[in-house]
C-alpha cells in the first residue's frame, strides 16, 4: 500500500490577497493622477515645473534665514549704540558746526545749547520716513570735559535737534558757543564725555 503525500491547502484569501504597496508608491500614483507626466503646465514639462518649484522653495528658505540673521545682528548692533536706554557715560569727539534747520525740523543758532548726534544713533530709532518725528528729537544729554584753558571741569546740558553724518556713534557735534565752554575753539576737535539725561527713548 503506497503512502499518500500530504498536500498543503492554501486558503482562498491568500490567493486573492494583493501585495502591499509602499506609502511612497501610493503617493507617487496619486501625484501622477493629479499632475500627469505627459501633460504640459504653462507651456513647460512637469519635470521643469517641479525643478522650478523646488528652486523657489530653496530661495525662499534662504531669504528667511538671511532675514532672521540680519534682524539678530541688527538687534546686537542697536544694543551697542549709545541710546538713551544706555545709562553709561560715553566718550567721543566733540566738534562744532554752524546750525540752521536741523533734522528734527527745528531752526537753531550758534548761541544755543543744542547738539547733533551721530546718524547711526539717530537712524537706529527712526520710525517712519519723517525725521522730525524721531524719538531722540528734544532729548537732552550732558557733555562734560576738563577745560584746560579755564582750569576747571565744565558741564553743559544739550538738546538734540539734528543728526551728524560725519560723526561716529559716540561723537557729538555742537555750536561754537557750547564748544567754547568746554574747550579752546582753536582746537576744533577734542575728546568729551557725555551721558543722556533721559534714560528711555
UniProtKB/TrEMBL annotation:
Keyword Cytoplasm: no
InterPro entries: Expansin_CellWall (IPR051477), RlpA-like_sf (IPR036908)
Superkingdom, natural source: Eukaryota
CDD domains associated with the record: DPBB_RlpA_EXP_N-like
Keywords: Membrane, Signal, Transmembrane, Transmembrane helix
Stretches assigned to coiled coil: none
Transmembrane segment boundaries: 48-71
Keyword Nuclease belongs to the record: no
Protein name: RlpA-like protein double-psi beta-barrel domain-containing protein
Organism the protein comes from: Trichodelitschia bisporula
Amino acid at each position: 500500500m503506497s503512502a499518500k503525500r500530504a498536500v498543503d491547502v492554501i486558503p482562498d484569501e491568500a490567493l486573492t490577497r494583493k501585495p502591499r504597496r509602499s506609502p511612497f508608491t501610493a503617493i507617487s500614483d496619486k501625484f501622477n493622477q493629479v499632475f500627469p507626466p505627459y501633460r504640459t503646465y504653462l507651456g513647460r514639462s512637469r519635470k521643469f515645473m517641479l525643478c522650478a518649484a523646488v528652486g523657489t522653495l530653496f530661495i525662499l528658505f534662504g531669504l528667511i534665514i538671511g532675514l532672521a540673521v540680519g534682524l539678530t545682528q541688527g538687534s546686537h548692533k542697536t544694543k551697542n549704540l549709545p541710546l538713551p536706554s544706555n545709562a553709561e557715560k560715553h566718550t567721543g569727539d566733540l566738534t562744532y558746526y554752524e546750525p540752521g534747520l536741523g533734522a528734527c525740523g527745528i531752526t537753531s543758532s550758534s548761541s544755543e545749547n543744542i547738539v547733533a548726534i551721530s546718524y547711526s544713533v539717530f537712524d537706529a530709532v527712526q520710525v517712519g520716513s519723517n525725521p522730525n518725528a524721531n524719538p531722540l528729537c528734544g532729548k537732552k544729554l550732558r557733555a562734560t570735559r576738563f577745560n584746560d584753558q579755564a582750569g576747571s571741569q565744565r558741564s553743559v546740558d544739550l538738546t538734540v535737534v539734528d543728526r551728524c553724518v560725519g560723526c561716529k556713534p559716540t561723537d557729538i557735534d555742537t555750536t561754537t558757543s557750547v564748544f567754547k565752554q568746554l574747550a579752546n575753539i582753536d582746537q576744533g576737535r577734542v575728546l568729551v564725555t557725555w551721558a543722556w539725561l533721559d534714560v528711555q527713548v
